[in-house]
Structure formats: C-alpha cells, structure tokens
Amino acid sequence: MQYIITAPTVLNCNVKLPASKSISNRALIMSALAGGQKLPDNLSDCDDTEVIVRALKDTPEIIDIKAAGTAMRFMTAFLAATEGEHVITGTERMKHRPIAVLVDALRFIGAKITYEGEEGFPPLRISGRQLRGGDLHIKGNVSSQYISALLMIGPMLKGGLKLHLEGDIISRPYIDLTLWMMKEYGAEADWSDINVITVKPKPYTERSYYIENDWSAASYWYEMMALNANTEDSIILEGLLDGSKQGDSIARYLFSLLGVKTTILNPENGKPGSVRLKYSGRSVPRLEYDFLNCPDLAQTFVATCVGKNIPFHFTGLQTLKIKETDRIEALKTEMRKLGYLLEDRDDSELFWDGARCEPANSDELAIAIDTYEDHRMALAFAPLAHVRNYIRINNPQVVTKSYPHFWTDLSSAGFEVVEER
Predict the structure, then answer these.
(1) In what order do the strands lie in the sheet with 2-6?
(2) Fewest 10 Å CB contacts: which of 13, 79, 223, 339?
C-alpha cells in the first residue's frame, strides 16, 4: 500500500497529539510492579504500548512484542524479576536486534535467561524469580532502554541496585525520565555520582497516573511549520507540558533555529496545556548538533534541513544503526531518490553540504519513499510534501508503532492523503 501526500497551501489547525509512548511504557511496568490493577490515564494507543498492555494483562507463555524494541527491553527485565516462565519474541527484524548487554547484566544479578535462537538476540526463554541486586556495571553508550529496564526493577531486588555506567552515557534524558517516574511511583532512585545510580530496595506505591502527550510526535508538526514557511499560519498542539521530562521536548528549542517560534498557551499549574507554533521567517544558514541525547529526532531534522536547503552536520547518531532499521543508511538511500547526497562517517555522523544528484525518476510522482518497517521514516518524510508537488510513502501503516492517527490528523489539517495499492 502507498499514500500520496499533497500539502495544503494554508496550515492552520489544532492537533490532539498521541500520548507519550515513552511515558506510557514506563508507567505500565512500574504500575505492574506496584501490583496496580488500574491502567494509567491517557495511555498511548500505539503498537509499542499495546503489546505491553497485552503481555501484562494475559501473561501468555509466549509473548510476541512484534517490532517494539522498548517492550522487548522492558519486558525482559520485568519477566526476569517476576515469577513465571515465558518466551519473549518478536518480528524477524527484532530477532536481529542485539540484547546481550541486558541479558548479561540480568544474569549477573541472578536471572535465568536462555537464548532460543541465535546467541545474543531474541527470542529469549525467561524463568522469573527474585533477583539479588547489588553493584552492577554496564556500558553507558549502549541503548538507554537497557539502563531504564534495569533501573525499573531495582526496587524489587533484594539489595536494591547500584548501577555503574561505564564510558560515555547516551540518551541521558531518557534515563532521567525513568528516575523521575520511579520517584513519582514512590521509589527511591537517583544519581549518587556522575556515573552511578543508586536504587533503594523500597517497593513502588500504587497510584493513579496521567500521561502527557508526545513531544516526539510534536516534532513532525514543527517540521511542517518550518517547511510550510508561511508567517501567517499557526498550529496548536494539545496536551504538551512546559518543562517536560521527555528528552525530545528539546525539539522546540532546536526548531527555533529553523524559524519556528513556540508559545505556551493556558498552562495549568504543571499540567499539560497547549503550544502554538508560528514561523518567524528567520533560519540559521547551517545547523550542527549532537543528537546523543535525542537520537529519535535525527530523521526529522535531516528531512527539515534538506527541505529548507540548510546544510547540516549531525553527530551522536551511533544508536541509529540498531533501531527499527539502519536509519543512517535508510536516510541516505531515500534522500538520494529525491536528489540529495548525504554522507556519513564512523557510523555516528551524518552531514550534507548541499550536494545534489539526479532524482530516482524524472516523474516526481513515481518516486516512492520506502519506510523499512520504521515509523519514523514515514513520519519524517511525509512533511516534505510542503516543498514538493507530492510525496509518495510506501507501507504508510508503520506509523501505528507510535502515532496511529497521524494520517487522519494530516487529513484534518488540510493535507490530501490518497491511498494506492
């Protein structure tokens, strides 16, 4: 299936963003460990969250988390620290996403986990039991989801957990988000040194919990405003928290460099409100940024800069190689189709100096963007309809992984979304 996207000439809309899946997935694990029977309020309805809801509700012997990397990491730790025997598996791509770092760490504190297929990769057979905790060392430059998974089970461990992060620490805001939420659920967990996190063996407390909307999803509307570049238009995004703990809330500051001004509307004593986006007409001539702490924004900013003809140099992208796809290669390949030559370096940098090439087809409508089973490829490339006559997206349904009603929201905002099979 394909969608052909045509952008409106005027972009004035109100958008109710999806709930944050990062917060939803953490809240579900903490609530379950607290013995909670009630789901958090405003829970995300995306695929990545639904697989956790289903796994926690039914706890079948075989748990299929499909393409949800967060669910694989979080549920692996959860199952290791709770009674029962399960096999956790996923899509073919998931079976090639490494998990040995997390498994080794869990085994060190007493977990019983075996590989059902290739060593170091899912599926896993997990026999859950009480784990001992104590001092644990793990590399800080691997997925922060490994670290968050270990932290969240910390209060349930016999001796608590003292987690030593070795080397550079990537995606630190996601670790801080986990710690903040753990404290919201009654745990005692915090940085005790520059690279050490201490979690006391104090159980979670059952509570009601409201989940704010998703700053990652907001980034695509920022991209649309930047590419639309009409100073008379505005977008209002609902359910965002000023001072959010979400790492991708940095998007509002980065997009100010690309001409998008953010105004906070009706703030309610720390509760989520709305933000208004307007285009100022002024952008930097070149953008350099280290995405070490917010790698999920990289595709959005690559597409925005190319669409605005702004050269860039982005670093801190090492985790992009092991996401839903190799995002660095995917970006290079799909941008080449559109006539842009991106270059990479050391599997962690991506840059563009304005170099162009012949597009994949002289007929613009015939060029189709492949999404590689990666929701963020579809989400980041669709706004390029603002600077092209059309943009054609293959397998557009991948957006259900994080933003199920994205195409409906585009239609409501005035985009023409035409399905072709």
Answers:
(1) 368-369, 391-394, 2-6, 416-420
(2) 339
